[in-house]
């Protein structure tokens, strides 16, 4: 591993216009980090990565590098791109492990401001870390028993070991963040209660946890799950040997690979067009694990024996152009729907003045502030389902907006 990443770092051309950095949604200063790595200055490299992206250790594992940093690297034009994700994983992991005390020591003196962070996924973690480092008193509220959001309950542990979430929990606690799990804001407590109780600003990063339904017959049957719910606790879901997965995005790939690890013998994913929306890496892993993909089938119902499809009519480019008449029945013990998610609407229903877009996501301005003064948002609840690094980008913007709103200088 170390030999491999040293070789990779030595191949870097230190481009004056680093396309790798342009391809990264949070513009990680990749050449600088590689230079410091070559100079054996892991501490500074780790500090730069963490300052730019507190979730760097996680993004180095779960990002779609092939379409971001590595997909843009000039070395990829002639051969293999610099495998920066391996370098980033090494540097960030060791920084979090070895130098966590330095992060904690860099915390500013208390500034007298208090903030509530609702939701503890990547966006909530980034905001909590940034505000705590700026000297705010931060309380994090999480509906589920453990923090982490999609990192704990959405990404399977064979892709992201749960020890990473634990590492971040330790960091948050060390930074003085108070964590209230199993507490729903929008239930017994509302955002108005948070503002009444002295929080100067509130961050909402509650994700997109409501499965999108297709409105077809059979989705309420006992042999059906929604992928986002299935991933929360797959051990409690009895799927049988034959599993049909409706959808071909990254969640669908995670569901397929999880089902195969939990005892399913045959897992088939269904695309209603001629392609997939998941990243190529995830598709390759799913196929390597034994999943099969069927194309051009549009689900129209689920019955006791499994999903029922109509064969799709495809345009020349493979896109969906309609449904034909032919009906296809597929035998499956369980059908799992993975056709996207939307935010739950608890906060919208319980917070006066909080507005959503037509798509059901939180409406925010250029500072990440919602339509309620002092209440900010980022992550999937604002963008709809996206990746961890996109949540980080939004969370950085919202954290800066919150600091400005609270009148904290330097922000
Ligand atoms: Fe190095 Fe590739 Fe980035 Fe150039 S584009 S600085 S070679 S990682």
From TrEMBL:
InterPro entries: DPD_II, FAD/NAD-bd_sf, FAD/NAD-binding_dom, Helical_ferredxn. One of its GO terms (molecular function) is oxidoreductase activity. Residues 116-394 form the FAD/NAD(P)-binding domain. Pfam families: Fer4_20 (PF14691), Pyr_redox_2 (PF07992). Residues 5-94 form the Dihydroprymidine dehydrogenase domain. This is NAD(P)-binding protein. It comes from Olsenella porci. The lineage of its organism: Bacteria, Bacillati, Actinomycetota, Coriobacteriia, Coriobacteriales.
